[in-house]
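User: ok so my PI wants both of these folded by tonight, can you help

Assistant: No problem, let's get them done. Here's the first:
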Amino acid sequence: MQHREQIIEKSFPSFTWIHIINPDLQNMERFAEKYSLNDYQLTDSLQPGHLPKFEHQEKYQFLILRALLAKIPERNNMVGQVSGKVSFFYNEDKVITICRHHFAFMEKPFSEEINSTEAFVIEVMSRIFHTYEGILKHLSDKVDNIEKVIFLRNMSRISLEDLYFHKSKTRVIKKLLQISQGVINQFKFKDEHQTAFQDVNDKLFGLILGYEETI
């Protein structure tokens, strides 16, 4: 069943967050006009398979990142099958996020002490990259099991097709992380947010190394 568009608005002390889930195309055109959003960037934010990107506009910053889905079938290995987009339009007064999926990490409460849109965006970044941790453990455990079977020389228990999908999925996820790293390295946050942002960078770097080890 197709879910209807949801728009959630929350006020923080110094900014407003507007979160749009499963956007309706006609509504989005009116929304873009209301907030002076670039048509091309809005189109990018609605394309299911669009890769991470960052663009600076005169009135706001535009960002796309991808979070891993909570449930990924074993033989799904395409970008759009394993992940979903979170698009951001933000300036000092407002953050607009757009998702096609109901991500649990977006519905989890945010601290009322978040004092700026930059701090909010960094917090969402951290939550997005956290979604890569669970599947990393699953893929790592699977590699360990395969290596044990090879060591015991019980090759009949290895499915070459399963092995192909495992490696393909791992490569796709690692590539997503590498693209994301290139995107967030374009950011320049205020000094007060540098520590939190560096924590996100460190987490991302560790994830890339982790996925590299599972290929």
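One down. Here's the second:
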Amino acid sequence: MSTSESRATGQSLPAAGNGAGTLLQLRQLSKSFGPVRALTKIDLDVPPGLVTALCGDNGAGKSVAIKTISGLWPADSGEMLWEGKPVRLHGPRDAEALGITTIYQDLALCDNLDIVQNMFLGHETRRRLVLDEEKMELAARETLRDLHVTTVRSIRQPVASLSGGQRQSVAVAKAVMSQAKLVIMDEPTAALGVAQTTMVLNLIKRLSSRGVAVLVISHNLNDVFEVADRIAVLYLGRMVASGPASEFDRATVVDYMTSGTSGRGAGNGGGSAPAEI
């Protein structure tokens, strides 16, 4: 990816290209809640098979962005393109039908159900009129094995008994089971210990290696630079920088997150700072 891909957006972004090879594109997307402008004409590219990190301070608009992509809230203006074609989502089911799965911080898992039941919740496999428990068990076991999730004692143990990292693993496996093309992960390592964080970061890398696009929302820049191929930064509802991760360093990302601009040159990361417009 060339340096020319990187851009800071203190002003309007230049006209987008044809988006060849890009799974998801947001173009001049805006969203308001009454008088509050949550997103202002943001542009974002999410390529397939790569990890894109969406960074920003509290109130930057990250949650609004992912909920708009997930079909929870409609955009007021702008355009969303999926595999190069304009789409308009009328709800989360529309996003899911395209192949977009969102894993929120609460993971949306049912503590009283076991791992298999959670992975197939709402998509149960049936044989005639009866649940095909054997087929679901086999598919769940194979999916967890493919993702190298080996720490769970039994796929029939209740989710309530799992650690934070194991719960995140189940949520990711559920996304894989649904044939997701894009997995959005909201603060996936929040409140996790070192070992569990490593487990989740490895899962993100495995998802990417399988050709799945991953959009990670995170405050933890150590995690961002561990897994991200691309970085985008929101500041007060505006996309102020985006480009290959190699063109950012931690100090530059912090600058963009806290002030919306950065005058730094190449930093500790060894890459050049994103070009300013």
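The chain has two domains: 1-11+19-99+180-269, 110-174. Helices lie at 62-69, 92-98, 115-119, 133-146, 164-177, 194-209, 221-227, 250-259. Good luck tonight!
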